[in-house]
Amino acid sequence: MNTEISGIIFMYVAMVLLAIPLGSYIGKVFEGQRTWLDVIFNPLDKLFFKLGGIKPEKEMNWKQHLFALLTINVVWFIFSMIVLMTMGSLPLNPDGNPSMSADLAFNTTISFISNTNLQHYSGESGVSYLGQLILMLFQFISAGVGIAACAVVFNAMKERTTEKLGNFYNYFIKSCTRILLPLSIVVAVILLFNGTPMTFKGKDKFISLQGDTVNVSRGPAAAMVAIKQLGTNGGGFFGANSAHPLENPNYFTNIVENVCIVLIPIALVFALGFILKRKKLAWVIFGVMTIGFLSFVVPSVYYEMKGNTSIAKLGIAQNNGSMEGKETRFGAAASAYWGITTTVTSNGSVNAAHDSFTPLTGMFAMLGMMVNSFYGGVGVGFLNFYIYMIIAVFISGLMVGRTPEFLGKKIEAKEMKIATIIALLHTFLILSFTALSSHLYAHDPKTYASWLNNPGNHGFSEMLYEYTSSSANNGSGFEGLGDGVPFWNITCGIVMILARYLPIIGPLAIAGILAKKKFVPESAGTLKTDTVTFGIMIFAVIMIVAALSFFPALALGPIAEFFSQK
Amino acid sequence: MKRNTDNKLFETSLMKDALKQSFVKLNPKILIHNPVMFTVEIGTIVMLFVCAWIFAGEKSQGSLAYNLIIFFILLLTLLFANFAEAIAEARGKAQADSLRKTREDTPAKKVFSIGEIHVDELKIVPSSQLKKGDLFICETGDTIPMDGEIVEGIATIDESAITGESAPVIRESGGDKSSVTGGTKVLSDKIKVRVTTEPGESFLDKMIALVEGASRQKTPNEIALTILLAGFTLIFIIVCVTLKPFGDYANTPITIAAFISLFVCLIPTTIGGLLSAIGIAGMDRALRANVITKSGKAVETAGDLDTLLLDKTGTITIGNRKATNFWPANNIDKNIFIEACALSSLADETPEGKSIIELAGINTNTFSTNGAKFIEFTAETRSSGIDLPSELRIRKGAFDSIKNLVTKAGNIFPEETIQQVKNISNNGGTPLVVSQNEQVLGVIELQDIIKPGIFERFDRLRKMGVKTVMVTGDNPLTAKFIAEKAGVDDFIAEAKPEDKMNYIKKEQQGGKLVAMMGDGTNDAPALAQADVGVAMNSGTQAAKEAGNMVDLDNDPTKLIEIVEIGKQLLMTRGTLTTFSIANDVAKYFAIVPALFIASIPGLQSLNIMNLHSPESAILSAVIFNAIVIPLLIPLALRGVAYKPIGASALLRRNLLIYGLGGIIVPFIGIKLIDLLVSIWF
Questions:
Q1: Which site from B123, B199, B318, B348 is most exposed, i.e. has the minimal number of CB atoms within 10 Å?
Q2: Where are the domains of chain A?
């Protein structure tokens, strides 16, 4: 078999094989069972609890959980603003990089705290090492918040009636110390041995063969790369992200980093099976996500390996596929595979230029973010999926002639209202803001000429991609868009905030309300959610509700580009 | 009211009224309650303005004919949806009218009191003037003017006007058979009745209002579905509105007609148009089954039931026990024993007694009963029998009473008869011991006869996920036997009224929904506690007040039908929602290429149905969208057939028919319509 294809199949198999035991481990962590890491991390947890005055055994209802979640976010938001705006004169700044302006600090903070990691600065020159460390801290915090919210929802889905859903701070700290930190250490060490720098020294210098002196940026990169991959953050240490040779030195590190992107999102699905003792349900959810993922990744790999039709028309052979914007050390297949894994999850780290993907690969990358729940971001991916499950349960519950029930809880008007609003939100944010920018551009192309590198359909894709990426809290860019201007900073910022918190609040509220309801035991008339049929139903709901509503927009962007190229 | 099995959906008389109502319901004030169709109405009005604009000379919006056709199709879509609701209401109304006929103003013989004392001074007043608490008299041949409770007397009453059952029933004051219904006729005797409801507030009045739609409130499931449908509508508003700047960017002018067509096609008009018709039709089906419900919610709840409490007698078994076997004691000739049994039952008018004579197969006229003395059953002796002039004393009674009799006389109660008595009990039967001159002759075995077909019905319920519980006064042994034979899942033996209540509470604490049927006043608390309480129409007023449904047929197995009606109601909504949303796939593929082909010729490849032109594509989609509503009205009114094959299998089946079908059918439909439309466009 083609080695490039064997490479990505290996990556996928490795991902699943690692995710299954990790899922049981995460399940044990949230259930408060003993794990072998307790010896090392219990003292650390106790320290945090003591410092924060947290009583981890004090259980919270869903509103208290939300309050805790927002508190964490607000506190760190203020802290980050201060550091980013003063870091120029703070320690750990060997290269003498400047402090950020208020608007850039604001944008960067929101971007990192919302797990988006849209970067309007370049790591090499825009932040000090202290700044990088703060951003790295955020990559733990935002991922930890997502996983903790997911843990609350898992807890709420159990078969019982209660308001008490565990302690948010406990989930949050455990997510960081028991899941993210140990995994990051392992990954960082692997990267370190493959050449990724980990130092507080300033730029290094060497004299090239031509005799020029070249300054090479470095810094504590290995640690940051590990968490940016694991926490579906995606904010790289260097501007070029994982296409940068120091951030992703070789094919092996590429495999490690790519596996990390999807590892925790898949593991969380298996953790659900462990916590609810519903293994079959976990496999159904995993199956739906996988079919969705494959339906995006297979054609993408195919089109990237096939090469660019425009170049083919020039009579140039493309034996290695479409290599524009790709690294030769990864190749077309691994780049396409990364491109889809990073967009179906809300990661957003890149190892190739998404702008240069063939049109349909670009579309599948966008679809991955539009659906945003085929694996999805750490924690939040499942929360998005949960919303689609609620809608699917509702419709199919009616279809079997019963008031819809999900895991023994009746779904009524209030839950449907929340689910509908959350399902709407993503479509609304992406389409309405793309419409706004299209409107501005269409009516005054001269003023906004700097926005778009490419005219026509591809330019439209660039705008659509930017808002899709913001709304999916993905953070990757279809570069080519001149996004460093106030219009894009502000609108993307708004989209990022709304798209981060509302889709966490919604599922948390639904799960909390359902948990309080009376538990209805299963009977022969109850709709079973752990069946293939129900899996098909969820898939259909996601495709028709989420994917199809973007059909007209995609038709004007990548689809038009694809058919026009023929 | 006769049970209406007439399945003709569109009677001409109803059609006329429904057509008129279709136009009346165009009133935005009425339509706003249905958000999906309301947005269609806005689109229709916009199209009207567009037509006027083109008429005034605007050139950018396509031909006037094309726009006018779109306008008319949208109007038609609205009318179809309104018609669906109107025809459902008309059918309900027709059903209600036939009920109402039974309670037209009838003269009532009202009892007036002078001061504190009721003297039977009667005055004829119209029934509409009767108030709650008034007393009236009904004599032979009178029609009872109002629902009420008999306070004095006993009468046979013909209730066929309500139940369709022609055999007269007996109603008397006190006890559980004291309630009479307005519209029924007294066949004999005289009763004094107290009015129990205010005029216009009887169950029937409430039900009539429900089916007519006047007081129909949306049920919880309907509200949740409306929210979801409104959400879909909002998504498609966003999709269509944002298409304008997208089109501007791509230099693709999109006509208003195309926008509105895309929007109307995408929003779930099919389910939106049929939603209220489905709800009304559900109530109507309940009414056709002769069940009066107090609210639509009760019917929906019935579909969710987990547990049914059923009385044994009359529901699971045919009302009365029957003699099935004679077991003579040792050394007793069987024929002598049978003759003794028959003799002892000669004067026994109970069904059990009659069944003994029947089983004995002896012509009772051959008996010479001159000078015989019949001994009536009393609660004290708990036995009955006959004393013949030939010094023969035959007694028949329960085991312990005859045992008493025998042992008192110094005789031995044979061991093998004790064994026989036990055997009969263990097999669910009732033993009656017969003695002659205080010597045991043998045992008669009485058995409950389980209704034919009941086992299958319980099996069907089990497959629906409904647990059946038999309530009986029998001892646990007998109860267990009958429970097994009839196929019920559980039983309450030696049941006292509070046992039912406790059982219901226990089940409800486990999160289950419980239904029960009852008629007596002592059933009232349990009826109120149950999630669905069905009171028999013959039951007491208290029972009827406590339950949330009344069964006019007094048929205890009616609950099974009610469960199916409830399930059908929800299923019809779910399947049509699925169908409606699945339709969108084809509509996208019809309209989206049509919008952009002019400026981006490459998108012709998306025109997978190979529709003739952009105009014909849009028209075909809109026409399909409109005609699918009337085509589905019969389904909405009849309801999707419920099959108890388990939830997963049911989902698979419905997903295949209405989901996959919903994706495929419009592709075919739109293509066919396009072939026709392409002649002109």
A1: B123
A2: 3-563
